[in-house]
Amino acid sequence: MQLGSICSFAKGNKALLPPAFAAWFAARGWQAHPHQLELLAADDAALLLIAPTGGGKTLAGFLPTLVDLAAAPHDGLHTLYISPLKALATDIARNLARPVTELALDIRIEDRTGDTRASTRRRQRVDPPHILLTTPESLALLLSYPEAPRIFAGLKRIVVDEIHALAESKRGDQLMLGLSRLATLAPKVQRIGLSATVQDPAALAGFLAGPTPCRVLMAPPGPSPDVRFLATQAPPPWAGGGGRWAATEILQQVKAARTTLIFVNTRALAELFYQAIWAENTENLPIALHHGSLSREARNRVECAMAEGSLRAIVCTGSLDLGIDWGDVDLVIQIGAPKNVKRLVQRIGRASHRYNTPSRALLVPANRFEVLECQAALEAVAAHDLDGTPRGPGPLDVLCQHILLCACAGPVNANALFAEVRTAGPYGRLSRAAFDDCLEFAATGGYALRAYDRWQRLVETGGHWQLRDPRSSRALRMNIGTIVNVETLKVRLRGRGIGGGGGHLGEVEESFAAQLSPGDTFLMGGEVVCFEALRDMAVLVSRRATRKPRIAVFSGSKFSTSTLLNRRVQAIIADRSAWKSLPGHTAHWLHQQSEISQLPRPGRLLAESFARNNQEFLCIYAFAGRAAHQTLGLLVTKQMEAAGLEPLGFVANDYALLIWGLQPVDDVAALLEIDGLRDGLERWLGDNAVMKRSFRNIATIAGLIERNIIGQRKSGKQATFSSDILYDTLHKYDPDHLLLRITRDQAMQGLVAFERIEAVLSEIGGDIDHIRAPHVTPLAAPLLLEYGKVPIRGAGAERLVVDVAARLMAEAGLE
Amino acid sequence: MRPIGEIGAMDMYPFQFHGHDLQALASGGLYWGTQRLLVVSDLHLGKSERIARRGGSLLPPFEVLETLSRLTDLVDALDPLEVICLGDSFDDLAAVEALEEPDFAEIKRLAAGRIWTWIEGNHDAGPLSVPGSHLAERRLQNLTFRHIAQPGAVAEVSGHYHPKQRVAVGRARPCFLLDGNRIILPAFGTYTGGLQACDKVFDPLFATDARAVLTGARAIVYPRQLPSKARNPA
Hints:
The complex is a heterodimer of chains A (815) and B (234).
Chain A: H1 19-27, H2 34-41, E1 46-50, H3 57-71, E2 79-82, H4 86-102, E3 109-112, H5 118-126, E4 131-134, H6 136-143, H7 148-152, E5 157-160, H8 163-166, H9 170-185, E6 190-195, H10 201-209, E7 215-218, E8 226-229, H11 247-256, E9 259-264, H12 267-280, E10 287-290, H13 296-307, E11 313-316, E12 329-335, H14 341-348, E13 360-364, H15 368-382, H16 396-409, E14 412-413, H17 414-421, H18 432-444, E15 458-461, E16 464-467, H19 472-478, E17 488-494, E18 501-509, H20 510-515, E19 521-524, E20 527-535, E21 538-543, H21 563-574, H22 584-596, E22 605-612, E23 615-621, H23 626-642, E24 647-652, E25 657-661, H24 668-671, H25 674-684, H26 689-702, H27 723-733, H28 738-752, H29 754-764, E26 768-772, H30 781-784, E27 790-791, H31 795-811
Helix pairs in contact in A: 2-3, 6-9, 11-12, 15-21, 16-18, 16-19, 16-26, 23-25, 23-29, 26-28
Chain B: E1 12-17, E2 20-25, E3 30-32, E4 37-40, H1 47-53, H2 63-78, E5 82-85, H3 93-97, H4 101-111, E6 115-119, E7 133-135, E8 137-140, E9 143-146, E10 156-158, E11 163-165, E12 173-178, E13 182-184, E14 195-196, E15 211-214, E16 220-223
Parallel strand pairs in B: 4-5, 5-6, 6-7, 9-10, 10-13, 11-14
Antiparallel strand pairs in B: 1-2, 2-3, 3-4, 8-9, 11-12, 12-13, 12-15, 15-16
């Protein structure tokens, strides 16, 4: 938050501001926004402020606290501020220091995140500051200590920043459970939610406040942003995910602007683009890189340089989606399709954080398919058409964790906790039976086969549940949080000394590291590094500036295109008259598709078959979004396996599904028969890689699987075993176990998106156009390069394993 | 020697080892037909119980059942005269005492009427209160059966390391590692992880032409993946 951002020429009600504050504002020629003053006057128990980026909502959240603390001294914690980003907490601590110092307020402000030193965190538990800036995970941790009631007893205000972002993930559910706890510890506490523009404010208010009435305050929306395509000489490539093809033109834009944020959708693509833009950057403009795989030190350096105004551009990922206000950013470049209109609007808002200046943004589609999506997004932004997905009920794995953490703080009364949990918005309709299941899971593991007295994490005495072994609280606290990362390995520069570890560059996924052979090169933090060895669970690398990198495939987050954008994309393809607003190359591409194969038509389903590299491909254009296509892929390949078509794998993007195998598919309609798919869904839910991955996350959050803690992993891999084994065991012996039920439910909601498949299939009503193409078609080409291929471990794969083994044995001269 | 046909549908990899015909079974057991000897390793029975007892995660308490039922299938199919469990049969000694009655009865039933040997492992060092004899190692003709491989040993069959190897398609599978001098068995226990066959730990134990027999639906033989540049593209 930059205080400059509250600068506005709007007439406000000065009377509310105490004279010292008014004078301080006046001395800077600033005037508060009306919504900031309205919040100052509010005494609601819960309130949601919706303001566009640059609307000064963070100051709106803090102003009442500063005024209150200036008026009367307060002993202990007064205001708890929670944001989804550590960086935001740190940044706000820095920015609040200024008015506090200049107004000579006796206010202590501290942040507390995963990055805060252990000694500081210990001290904060004994002697909390007036304003504590933290994250949902750190709050959950704080609440798990026995001294939580004392720490929070005097709490007066809770400010939840970027609540619209939190509400989209389990982090938000965990936070709301935490707030329900806080409401018990400090019954008079006021909660304020700060949100960007959302499609359904009332739903978000319900999420924040639960049964408490919650007023929604809407700040004026500000001017419409100036968003357009980046004009380029060459068309975007046929396929690919990055913006390297436009690096020259993007650099020209960076030169013309003061400061540019360049958003890239994944970490790997950010690395590649960063390298590409530096290859063009002959003037050595200060351009930095920021993404979640980089080491904390590296990210801090970039953030500080940005705050000092010494950078001209940052190539970044979702790591900079939210939060930190950099007033100097005057241009945002989005590389790749935005996938979601809300996120695009938010990113656009990063440019020119000044209220009355329109934000300026350029879209750079990564390939021709994305041109369509970018065009669809431009139209949606202009129409103020935001996508929204209604939230399901609060997930039970998060509740399991909450129960265990409550027990860490002290004995838990089941009735009281149930009543408390129901005051959290996402858990308002939680049934007692579901709650009891979670409690049972937390206490005994909740297995059908009981009778083991050792399976007791919690024991009940006199209606209160407590930890059987208080020492287990340590392991439970280590497991806090709802973000389950894929297993990663640190990347270190090989030191000069014997076996010495040099600097920590960042992290890569274990599966990526496993593919590396010595001598392989990849990009990390913008430099080409060469894989040397795997040692002590770290990837040792050396600098190798001259070699061309192998593509870094450590993945970043992958978004699904929203229904809204997908509809718009379909409409554009179907309407030849709409092509005139597309770049010529894209219109031409669609035209080519219509020549080589045909265009997807509304109300019908296009399927294409072609052969490539001795494998048979089938591409199905369902336009149902990545998640639904993922499901369709799993179900269809099951059918194919049963029919002896030997599928080997599939990959989905937001528009289509591509399946490959050893046999050609002749009858697509049979594979897409809805009853067959529905039957398959039931059986399929039991056994597949995606479900197992989902189970791993759920089991980790619920506390069945302990996170791998750095340092403990050295004990050797024999000691740890795959969560797949747990899944298989449960599935075989206890198929109705709570965690399997949660896995199924969540899969149906998010992962599976089966409703979208059903909707599409009922819409087409069996009208399938199956084209046998001579080769890969223009629309199918991007899928061949898509990441996230799902292998099918069936007969086809087994045949290949045997073939490869035989070949290798022969090569090795072993019989 | 029982004809291979009597092993039923079980897939296996037959090989010669110090003058004997052995079979690496896809299920993870080693079978010596002429001796009617079945060898399994690292059952880690009671692992979930031990973790629960120590205040850790409450893992699904079905792993003893699952491991024993797979062992039962194997014993019932092969009807061996002798069974050797190569150590770490129990996750710790207390886990032996914590065995549920039906599980204990099942072990008793399996051991009845045959020579049953529990080799001592690092997890279960000490006398065991289950039927069968309890030995540090067992010699049978010219072969030695022990828990941990000894560098320099020949004609040795051991366990301990839980080797696994990645395959052309998909994730790593538990595997046998073998060369002219020794055999290391995969872990048979349900709740067991593994050590990559390319781990340097195995270098002093195996010649460069060692092979890995992957277990699973079928027994598939690969060259052992080497740690360095000699790694195969799988």
